[in-house]
Amino acid sequence: MIGMPDLEAELLGNDVEIDFFGTTDEALFAPDRLARLDALMVWGARLGPRSIGHLTRCRGVVRYGVGYEKIDIAALERAGIPFANNPDYGTEEVADHAIAMILSLHRRLWEHDARARFYTSGWQTHSLTPLSRSNQATVGVVGVGRIGTAVVNRLKPFGFRILGYDPGQPPGHEKAVGYQRVHSLDDLLAQSDIVTLHCPTTTETRSMLDAEGLARLKPGAILVNTARGELLDDFDALEASLKSGRLRAAAIDTLAQEPPLDHSLLSAWRNREDWLAGRLVITPHNAFYSDHAAIEMRQNAAQTVKMLLEDGKLRNQITA
Predict the structure, then answer these.
(1) Strand order of the sheet with strand 138-142?
(2) H-type helices in the chain, by residue range?
(3) Neighbours of 229 (CB within 10 A)
(4) Does residue 65 contact residue 297 with C-beta atoms inside 8 Å?
(5) DSSP of 232-243, one letter per residue?
């Protein structure tokens, strides 16, 4: 994803030498090169004890992106090396991507498109139902942090009733942002016509929508996931829910395995099988992306390293 680090080099200045590894394979990280680093910036590579043991002079590791499932933070802490992610880029892009998915599935645009290709008569008589007004539908937002808040703000003009579930937000956050707080995930799932996920992967959220979780959705609900694939990592359960109609439609940007392994649901999606037509939308983990966000991501990560090297302060620090 990251090409030659010219942008980073310009921001860090001539006093900083950059060693570009040019690989996401941790096994190819040379120990002697790791040992020379004062800071390490990581995009898609895993970082585990093998590499961390050679970071003998490293003052900090900075992840270009938001997620850090591939980073062994506990091993970094044992080595006395702080870690930071990069949460303040691409917020607009992910929120826009989620809203596009929500509106398109709510209006059943992809279903109408898929089926209209074969209509030969009665053109307007083929409107799909149910199809409610926005102000008659409820959207449940799981995780009301930066991106979740941006989604709430984008939903408001459409008139949706907006629920939010996020135990990490302080009391009154819902009043400042403008949503109705619910105090359990089950309450949100039971009330929401559309559920959109904007939370990290933790021990509490991993596989939150497995077969049991999907069964708690309101019948006929729509599910959107632009957060983490590990939140929804059971294709068997997802396929069963879509086939039964319990889940009317789903839009997914992140998968637990990328590219995904073979599965009957993915085969049905790839082959445009009639039962799934327009009901499953998958984008290739690019909700975060725009030309502007790609530059912002690199600038923000480099600025974090610059502050660390010059001031000894690491912003956006994450601990195990």
Answers:
(1) 180-181, 161-165, 138-142, 194-197, 221-225, 247-252, 280-282
(2) 6-12, 31-35, 49-52, 73-78, 91-106, 109-116, 146-155, 173-177, 185-191, 211-215, 235-244, 264-270, 291-311
(3) 19
(4) yes
(5) S--HHHHHHHHH
Whether residue 84 is found in the same domain as residue 55 = yes
Report if residue 231 sits inside a domain.
yes
Residue 202: predicted pLDDT:
87
Global pTM reads: 0.89
Domain that holds residue 238: 91-282
Identify whether residues 100 and 32 lie together within a single domain: no
| Residue 79 belongs to domain with CATH number | 3.40.50.720
All residues at 6 or more sequence positions from 41 whose CB lies less than 8 Å from its CB, including other chains: 8, 61, 62, 63, 64, 301, 302, 305
- pLDDT of 112-139, one tens digit each? 999 999 999 889 889 999 999 999 999 9
Cβ distance 152 to 179 under 8 Å? yes
248 shares its domain with 131 = yes
Going by pLDDT thresholds of 50, 70 and 90, the confidence category of residue 3 is low
| pLDDT the model gives residue 201 | 86
Average pLDDT over residues 45-64: 96
Mean pLDDT score, 37-61: 96
Q: What is the mean pLDDT of residues 21-28?
A: 92
Measured CA to CA in angstroms, residue 297 lies from 24, 275, 303 at distances of 18, 39, 10
The SS3 of residue 85 is coil
Report the C-alpha gap between 158 and 87 in whole angstroms. 27
Domain total for the chain?
2
- Measured between alpha carbons, how far is 48 from 80 in angstroms, rounded to an integer? 14
Q: In the block, which residue shows the tokens 């921001």?
A: 11
DSSP 125: G
Confidence of residue 276 (pLDDT cuts 50, 70, 90): very high
Q: Annotated active-site positions, please?
A: 228, 258, 285
Over residues 44-65, mean pLDDT? 95
Residue 108 to residue 8: CA distance in whole angstroms: 43
**Burial group, residue 48, by CB count within 10 angstroms (0-12, 13-18, 19+):** middle
